[in-house]
Design brief:
The structure is a single chain. The protein is built from 11 helices and 13 strands. With 334 residues, the chain is α/β, with parallel strands linked by helices. The chain has a single domain, classed as TIM Barrel. Strands 3-4-7-8-9-10-12-13 form an 8-stranded parallel barrel, surrounded by 4 helices. It has a 3-stranded antiparallel sheet with strand order 5-6-11, with no helix packed on it. Helix 5 packs parallel to helix 6 and helix 6 runs parallel beside helix 7.
């Protein structure tokens, strides 16, 4: 049994958020027993990835554990979501396990230290791998000024990111998902892509932009998102964030908690959105698969659906670091 397998019963006996924090603090120790990142090179968005398996945003919200996460064998890691100003997020409890379904519900609400302290943490890290930074809006920023927060975030993180993800799909910040609507999304992408031009000139490199979308999209919404990212020259899409659906966990303890559902129950829904986006975009935009990857076979399913890269979150919590190498092996075997 792996080191994580031995520790998991103890971790799962704790409050979910306390266990989450303890796991992050212990990740540096786990990294000592992890193999070096497996080589399975992939080029996407103009970036060379040592392998296509990444850490999804949300696990290391404040970029406090970049070195430890980077040592677990990932080909890239994504930190955040970070907002311009620090905020506490939603009241606790706000993280719930549904163990029988390998699922989690969270309603963190972009709790983070704010972009200034976040960047200080990034600067302190020594890891030199592919680092994505996920940005969002503050909860108290009115909807009509949401784009201002994304501009502030992009300016602050640009110099430190291999790519920047625009998070418009968390269900835990009121009104955030309305930014996926066609008119609002076009307005947002027009502003951030215009801002990128002077930033690219200033720093001498064009940082790819990625949009993270929800799994709870119908066919028309998927098509309008595909049209918008193509129109504005966005390099990537992450399909998907957590779900507001409770399909697959109905009637179970915690299933009625507010928040986003992740893990095995959303795999099919997330892969459907991934597949439809890949079809709509016809290879013009990199699509990153996320949602319900609990095994190497699940990662292989994302690649078969057209994902160029795959991210882990809930699977890492249930399976531990060994899942990373398993998913890399699945990619090699495809």
């Amino acid at each position: 049994m792996s080191l994580y397998g031995l520790a998991r019963p103890f971790l799962f006996s704790l409050d979910a958020e306390n266990a989450h924090q303890l796991s992050l603090r212990a990740a540096g120790l786990a990294a000592l027993f992890s193999p070096p990142p497996a080589r399975a090179p992939v080029r996407a968005m103009g970036i060379e990835f040592p392998n296509p398996i990444g850490l999804a945003a949300g696990l290391d919200k404040n970029a406090e554990h970049v070195d430890a996460m980077g040592a677990l064998g990932f080909g890239f890691i994504e930190v955040g979501t970070v907002t311009p100003r620090a905020q506490p997020g939603n009241p606790r409890p706000r993280l719930f396990r549904i163990e029988s379904r390998q699922a989690i519900i969270n309603r963190f609400g972009f709790n983070n230290v704010g972009v200034d302290e976040f960047i200080a943490n990034v600067r302190r890290s020594r890891w030199n791998g592919v680092l994505g930074i996920n940005i969002g809006k503050n909860a108290d920023t009115p909807p009509e000024r949401a784009i201002d927060d994304y501009e502030l975030g992009l300016k602050a993180v640009y110099a430190h990111a291999a790519y920047v993800t625009i998070n418009i799909s968390s269900p835990n910040t009121k009104g955030l998902r309305t930014l996926q609507e066609a008119d609002r999304l076009n307005a947002l992408l027009k502003r951030v892509t215009a801002l990128r031009e002077p930033l690219a000139d200033r720093y001498g490199r064009r940082v790819p932009l990625v949009v993270k979308v929800a799994p709870d999209l119908d066919a028309g919404e998927i098509q309008s998102i595909a049209d918008a990212v193509r129109r504005h020259g966005i390099e990537g899409l992450i399909a998907t964030n957590t779900s507001v659906s409770r399909d697959g966990v109905e009637g179970l303890a915690h299933a009625n908690e507010a928040g986003g559902l992740s893990g095995a129950p959303i795999k099919e829904r997330a892969t459907h959105v991934l597949r439809e986006l890949v079809f709509a975009l016809k290879g013009e935009v990199t699509v990153i698969g996320a949602g319900g990857v609990m095994s190497g076979a699940d990662a292989a399913e994302k690649f078969a659906a057209g994902a160029s890269l795959v991210q882990l979150y809930t699977g890492l919590i249930y399976r531990g670091p060994e899942l990373v190498a398993e998913c890399v092996s699945a990619f090699r075997a495809k």
